[in-house]
Write a structure and sequence with these properties.
alpha/beta; 434 Repressor (Amino-terminal Domain); Rossmann fold; Bovine Mitochondrial F1-ATPase, ATP Synthase Beta Chain, Chain D, domain3; 3 domains; 7-stranded mixed sheet; two-stranded antiparallel ribbon; 16 helices; 11 strands; 44% helix; globular; ATP synthesis; nucleotide-binding; ion transport; ATPase_F1/V1_b/a_C; proton-transporting ATP synthase activity, rotational mechanism
Length: 348
């Protein structure tokens, strides 16, 4: 099938308040969100849904649907992100979390890793003080205090280098961030990948967090409660990069097998919480224990947290992540204690 995806940038420009606009014309906000992030491929969407989106954006179907365009993945060397919700270079990433779930820590680690790969890191400082914000400010190359200053700093930056830029939801609500992206694109600047955070945690309760995005990272309260970090939900986090045609078939296959395993593991954990291990059917014990090992493996020690954890940070290439996850889901790690997979880099 021809490579198809929604023109998310166009939707951002034309329909900034997509949640209410979609609902007003009879579309389910969750369906629209999943189409924007690629969780639902465009080829599987109902025609009436695509037509309604084109009507909202006041554009033709040819303008709304992009054909044959590649999406490049940014490798973060953070296992759970690269496997389940990769970053689309030049796109927009939304972080959905309550306060104290680790979104600034993961952003700080991400910036640290990408700086080592030659990226320029930039932060539009949010108003107010938040735990972890000071550490992010100390890590980034450029701190700005307004959209106008951000625009100027991007223009001044070396255009041969890619830029990763983070800002708070306050600039999404005003529409300024989308105006900035449009202005940069009009000037032919496409090397900026944007990260949107909501430090107040209000976006968690919205159907379409931040509007149209290329990547969504949902943080998980259950993982936080059990101290499994980074606490990114591997089931609900998603990305346009995962539309199959943008990744090696092996990556897509492993990602889908891992998601299936973790989805069932989470269901079985609910049984255990009520009936303990006796509540799990004998035929499902293997699934439970493999899911337990995979969840443990997806934890990762961060360099930016070394002073708090006392544990050396680790980066893991996507190639190693895929190899390790394949070993776990196929059963090669069945005799390995769960504890030995917690907070490691790659499997030695």
């Amino acid at each position: 099938m021809e490579n198809l995806r929604l023109n998310v940038s166009l939707l951002k420009k034309r329909v900034p308040n997509l949640t209410s606009a979609a609902r007003d014309v009879g579309l389910r906000p969750a369906t629209v969100s999943n189409l924007c992030t690629g969780k639902i491929p465009v080829g599987r969407a109902e025609v009436k849904t695509i037509v309604a989106l084109a009507s909202l954006a006041k554009c033709s179907l040819d303008e709304l649907i992009l054909r044959g365009e590649s999406v490049e993945m940014i490798e973060t060397k953070i296992k759970v992100l690269d496997l389940f919700a990769p970053i689309a270079k030049g796109g927009t990433v939304g972080l959905v979390a309550r306060p104290s779930m680790g979104q600034l820590v993961i952003l700080n680690e991400l910036f640290r890793n990408l700086k080592k790969e030659g990226y320029v890191t930039m932060l539009l400082k949010p108003e107010g003080e938040y735990p972890g914000l000071k550490e992010v400010i100390e890590e980034v190359d450029i701190v700005t205090h307004s959209i106008k200053e951000t625009y100027e700093k991007v223009k001044e930056a070396d255009q041969q280098k890619d830029i990763v830029f983070a800002t708070d939801r306050e600039h999404v609500l005003t529409g300024e961030i989308f105006d900035l992206q449009e202005k940069l694109q009009e000037e032919g600047i496409y090397n900026v990948t944007t990260f949107l955070v909501d430090l107040k945690g209000e976006v968690v309760d919205e159907n379409i967090p931040y509007g149209p995005l290329e990547t969504l990272w949902y943080f998980d309260a259950d993982l936080v409660a059990r101290q499994k970090y980074p606490a990114v939900n591997p089931i609900y986090s998603t990305s346009t990069v995962l539309e199959g045609v943008y990744l090696e078939e092996f990556h897509v296959s492993i990602q889908q097998r891992a998601q299936k395993l973790l989805r069932r593991y989470r269901e079985l954990r609910s049984l255990v919480s009520v009936k303990e291990m006796e509540g799990i059917p004998a035929t499902e014990l293997q699934t439970f224990h493999r899911g337990e090992r995979l969840e443990a493996y997806l934890t990762q020690p961060f360099f930016v947290a070394e002073s708090f954890t006392g544990q050396k940070g680790e980066t893991v290439s996507i190639a190693d992540t895929l190899k390790d996850v394949q070993s776990i889901v196929s059963g090669s790690m069945d005799i390995v204690p769960v504890e030995s997979l917690l907070y490691i880099g790659k499997i030695q």
